[in-house]
Amino acid sequence: MKENLLQHDNLVWTHYSEESGYAFPVSYWGTILDIDDSGHLSVLYRWDPHSFCHFHRHLCATTSLVLDGELHVKTYENGELTDTAVRHAGDYAKKPAGDVHMEQGGPEGALVLFELYAPDGQLTEQLDPQGNILRTLTTEQLRYALQKQQQLAA
């Protein structure tokens, strides 16, 4: 596959939002670039300005590279905010499994490439504001989503 990720208008995006249950605006977009059988996954996400993704925990090692804009990462431990980092275009981060956080787009939003490695197929747990697990995202679910995404693009 050959893609210019900075010229991404031709990709099929899924919009994620939340109207209730959170005290902050949730609005971000995702597209799956690749999933292989060993558990490697490449995804591209973009955040609307000042909007958040869902509160979540990574179940696998994750790397990220901010391609455009500014990404604010709020990290939690035992339900308490412990760190806020601002990542700018060009910033790279690697996080181990277990990282509990949510991201927010900066004033112009953000475009971020994520690489995940989940040999057991377990990617993330979406959490409610109290930290309870709402759902678990797996590579199998994303393979199904990728098939639908490819059908839409055809």
Description:
The longest helix is centred in the C-terminal third of the chain and has 15 residues, at 139-153. Helices cover 10% and strands 56% of the residues. The chain has a single domain, classed as Jelly Rolls, CATH 2.60.120.10. The chain has one helix at 139-153, and strands at residues 14-18, 26-35, 40-47, 56-58, 61-77, 80-88, 92-95, 100-117, 122-127, 133-138. Strand 9 and strand 10 form a beta hairpin. The chain is mainly beta. Strands 1, 2, 3, 4, 5, 6, 7, 8, 9 and 10 form a ten-stranded antiparallel sheet that branches. The chain has one helix and ten strands.
How are the SSEs ordered, and which strands pair?
Blueprint (H helix, E strand, L loop, with lengths): L13 E5 L7 E10 L4 E8 L8 E3 L2 E17 L2 E9 L3 E4 L4 E18 L4 E6 L5 E6 H15 L1
Antiparallel strand pairs: 1-2, 2-3, 3-8, 4-8, 4-9, 5-6, 5-7, 5-8, 9-10
Percentage beta strand: over 45%
Radius of gyration: 15 Å
What is the CATH C level class, in words?
Mainly Beta
- Determine the mean pLDDT: 90
Main sheet overview: 10 strands, antiparallel
CATH topology group: Jelly Rolls
Number of strands: 10
* Apparent shape: globular
Distinct helical segment count: 1
Category by helix and strand content = mainly beta
CATH architecture: Sandwich
SSE ordering: EEEEEEEEEEH
CATH H-level superfamily title: Jelly Rolls
How many structural domains in the coordinates?
1
Which consecutive residue ranges, at least 5 long each, have pLDDT under 50?
none
User: Helix proportion of residues, in percent?
Assistant: under 10%
Features:
mainly beta; 10-stranded antiparallel sheet; 10% helix
